[in-house]
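Morning!

This is the sequence you dropped in the shared folder:
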Amino acid sequence: QVQLVEFGGGLVQAGGSLRLSCTASVRPFSTYSMGWFRQAPGQVREFVTTITMSGATYDADSVKGRFRISRDNANNTIHLQMNSLKPEDTALYYCAAKRDRYSGTYYYTNWNQYEYWGQGTQVTVSS
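The structure's back. Tokens below.
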């Protein structure tokens, strides 16, 4: 059974930083695109960032220049470094996995494209 487990969420003041991680049991991990999405109460699930099997990344405009996704294929893990956090970044953050069918040349940005999801980790940014 495939499992994705996120950790690293918490409470931080505006302007601070957090690092989220997600470990996935998909195999082989290196052939999957991985993404981060977030959902605030009463809002739709929102794309944050994605990384292809080749390591190319694509960010939502709302986080560009502040968030950075990376992957560690040796440990089946992705990370999300979040800097200069704002209160509007407050949400439940999910990681997701999608088998990469374009050899790293396509960015999966829609939540319904992803096959596997974690349970989410809460990020709260206080003003």
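Headline: DSSP finds no helices and eleven strands in the chain.

More detail when I'm at my desk.
O.
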